[in-house]
Amino acid sequence: MMMFSQLGDMVKTVKAAPGLIDRANALADRTQAYRQQMDAMAAQALHAEPAAGALEPIAGVDLDRYARIVKGIAAYGYDETKLPVVARMFGVDPEAWAQAQAGWGARIQADRGVGRRFNEIYAAV
Q: 6 Cβ partners below 8 Å, 6+ apart?
């Protein structure tokens, strides 16, 4: 009796196999398409140029100074509360720093070219 049950299960599995294979192939195709899309986006990000005017200083803080200030908190164990202290070391008052921090953060998020340039500066300083 158990042998017939196992045989029945095997028949069901064999009958289901083409559908399972089709679904697996479809998933593999979607995965490949997704990878290609992500690769294209990464390549675009590597070569993106900032939009016109996107590198203009914010509250007197250019992107180079912003990157140096952000990286400057490394000396404080990456404690973000020390950003105003580091900003003052770079001659930026707290009000200007607050504007620059918000503005550059928004630009970096919105413009891949600005983000790419920020990463280049950050890595170099």
A: none
